[in-house]
């Protein structure tokens, strides 16, 4: 095992740094944010950081300067700095798959050099970027046309997980910058409804399918891609049409060729970029087709700026490190089980879904890099909806429920669609929510409003509920790149402290294997011999009975 994955003994929870945090947590117990703010009138400015185009306010967390110092000491003691260097320099920190983790190379400038197994990967990255740009221009200029000579007007991305969530999130986030003469759709689910609804009003003659699969083995994607080919040929008949209406993004040239896509029309990716870390690779081809190559390059510049900040800033002024350590504090010391991500920006409506894969596939792990069971919680559950919709739905539980739910509020100072007072009203809601969560409403305040005694407990807001607020000037392609990289590195920071492999995903395998075994049992015309547990057997029998009706 390389130095980069050596554990730092003693074990995490026995380490002096962890125990110091536990002791410190006891001293903070019973302290209310109301008190912390009253004790330090400048707390709101002191516990905030301006970096990389973001204003990050973390003052409404149950932390003090000492908490942060202890968290940073914990990160130091677990070798976070060395882990960051190991990632950026291409060491094989994805230990269980023996792979480097180089998504940062996907946005490295062309004059940089990142060596992996004796080869510089940066020229390969830029060669693919140039191929994507040339292709995008040909589609936009009408030089690349469909088989019957019609221009391409519809782009349909077929992929799942990292080959879908990043592209769809980025398309929605950057829709404001997108070409309105193109229709961009996404098919991920193996549920035929996804395919049917995405294609029902499209003309095959004008439609390009971008089949994204790092492995080119994923059941959902290959099934959807086969249906896409059938849909196309149903209208265009001639097999040669496929070449004009399908391109692929993959590491697996053989699989692409076997499917029938010309490998000249394949955009390469590499095993050192994980699926959930790949929206800035060729997996982002649909994003580039939607917004153009210049906006895509601007997004890459945003990623790069956050990478540089993460790599070089001291931990106490390092945005992803602070965000990661505060999330870890809320999780491991305050016992929070989830994080609500609440963008006050409609264009970020798919951002929580994107973050779910990034955070939970990365840090949902039960053993350390050495295979030892962990005796602490790892990745929390991420979820969320854009404000203000969430306010009229689940915020009740965040304000008055029995669980502690830290929130990440994300807002922008300038709207992309200025409309009367809308933006001020939107942002007033964001600020009001974090204020209400932190400070609540005391019994005295409720009584002073003339509330009858019996109603007072119902109208009380305990407060002391932690939140971060991230503010940026405006949602641009560059800001989006910075935002995504911020969360990528925050996830990394937490995984490094927990000493887990944030870059594998063995937990998805068992379900896939069982589904493979179950498919013939559902499809076979003869009654199959079922050898599952009694529950699964009964479900399969019932399904077979009812589907025949
Ligand atoms: O099943 C999980 C997973 O492997 C994800 O990690 C990945 O993003 C997704 O499937 C899709 O994989 P592929 O791009 O190889 O089709």
Automatic annotation (TrEMBL):
Its EC number is 5.3.1.9. CDD domains: SIS_PGI_1 (cd05015), SIS_PGI_2 (cd05016). SUPFAM superfamilies: SIS domain. Keywords: Cytoplasm, Gluconeogenesis, Glycolysis, Isomerase. GO terms for molecular function: carbohydrate derivative binding; glucose-6-phosphate isomerase activity; monosaccharide binding. Pathway: Carbohydrate biosynthesis; gluconeogenesis; Carbohydrate degradation; glycolysis; D-glyceraldehyde 3-phosphate and glycerone phosphate from D-glucose: step 2/4. It is found in: Cytoplasm. Its main location: cytoplasm. It holds the Pfam family PGI. InterPro entries: G6P_Isomerase, G6P_Isomerase_C, Phosphoglucose_isomerase_CS, SIS_dom_sf, SIS_PGI_1, SIS_PGI_2. The active site is at residues 361, 392, 512. GO terms for biological process: gluconeogenesis; glucose 6-phosphate metabolic process; glycolytic process. It catalyses: alpha-D-glucose 6-phosphate = beta-D-fructose 6-phosphate. The keyword Isomerase applies. GO terms for cellular component: cytosol. Catalyzes the reversible isomerization of glucose-6-phosphate to fructose-6-phosphate. Belongs to the GPI family. This is Glucose-6-phosphate isomerase. It comes from Pandoraea thiooxydans. The lineage of its organism: Bacteria, Pseudomonadati, Pseudomonadota, Betaproteobacteria, Burkholderiales.
């Amino acid at each position: 095992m390389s130095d980069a994955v050596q554990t730092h003994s003693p074990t995490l929870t026995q380490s002096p740094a962890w125990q110091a945090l536990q002791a410190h947590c006891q001293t903070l117990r019973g302290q209310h944010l109301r008190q912390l703010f009253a004790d330090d009138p400048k707390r709101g400015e002191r516990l905030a950081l301006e970096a990389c185009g973001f204003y990050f306010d973390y003052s409404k967390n149950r932390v003090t300067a000492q908490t942060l110092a202890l968290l940073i000491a914990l990160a130091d003691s677990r070798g976070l700095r060395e882990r960051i260097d190991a990632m950026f320099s291409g060491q094989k920190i994805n230990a269980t798959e023996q792979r480097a983790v180089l998504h940062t190379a996907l946005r490295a400038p062309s004059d940089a050099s990142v060596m992996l197994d004796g080869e510089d990967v940066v020229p390969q990255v830029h060669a693919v970027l140039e191929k994507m740009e040339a292709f995008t221009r040909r589609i936009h200029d009408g030089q690349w046309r469909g088989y019957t000579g019609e221009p391409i007007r519809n782009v349909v991305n077929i992929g799942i997980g990292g080959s879908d969530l990043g592209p769809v999130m980025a398309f929605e986030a950057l829709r404001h910058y997108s070409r309105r003469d193109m229709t961009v759709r996404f098919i991920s689910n193996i549920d035929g409804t996804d395919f049917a609804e995405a294609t029902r009003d499209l003309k095959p003659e004008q439609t390009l399918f971008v089949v994204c699969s790092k492995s080119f083995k994923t059941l959902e994607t290959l099934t959807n891609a086969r249906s896409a080919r059938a849909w196309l040929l149903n209208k265009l008949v001639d097999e040669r049409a496929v070449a004009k209406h399908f391109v692929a993004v993959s590491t697996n040239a053989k699989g692409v060729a076997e499917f029938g896509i010309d490998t000249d029309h394949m955009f390469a990716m590499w095993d050192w970029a994980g699926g959930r870390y790949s929206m800035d690779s060729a997996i982002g081809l649909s994003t580039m087709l939607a917004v153009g190559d210049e906006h895509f390059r601007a997004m890459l510049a945003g990623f790069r700026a956050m990478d540089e900040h993460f790599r070089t800033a001291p931990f106490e002024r390092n945005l992803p490190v602070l965000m990661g350590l505060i999330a870890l504090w809320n999780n491991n010391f305050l016992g929070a089980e989830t994080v609500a991500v609440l963008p006050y920006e409609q264009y970020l409506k798919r951002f929580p879904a994107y973050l779910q894969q990034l955070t939970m596939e990365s840090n949902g792990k039960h053993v350390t890099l050495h295979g030892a069971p962990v005796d602490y919680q790892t990745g929390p559950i991420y979820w969320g909806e854009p404000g203000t919709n969430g306010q009229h739905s689940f915020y009740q539980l965040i304000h008055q429920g029995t669980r502690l739910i830290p929130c990440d509020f994300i807002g922008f100072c300038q709207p992309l669609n200025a409309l009367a007072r809308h933006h001020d009203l939107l942002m007033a809601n964001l600020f009001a929510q974090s204020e209400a969560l932190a400070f609540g409403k005391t019994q005295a305040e409720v009584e002073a409003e003339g509330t009858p005694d019996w109603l007072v407990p119902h109208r009380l807001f305990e407060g002391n509920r932690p939140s971060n607020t991230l503010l940026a000037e405006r949602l641009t392609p560059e800001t989006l790149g910075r935002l995504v990289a911020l969360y990528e590195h925050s996830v990394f920071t937490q995984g490094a402290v927990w000493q887990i492999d944030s870059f594998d995903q063995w937990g998805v395998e068992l379900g896939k294997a069982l589904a493979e075994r179950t498919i013939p049992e559902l499809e076979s015309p003869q009654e199959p011999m079922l050898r599952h547990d009694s529950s699964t057997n009964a479900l399969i029998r019932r399904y077979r009975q009812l589907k025949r009706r």
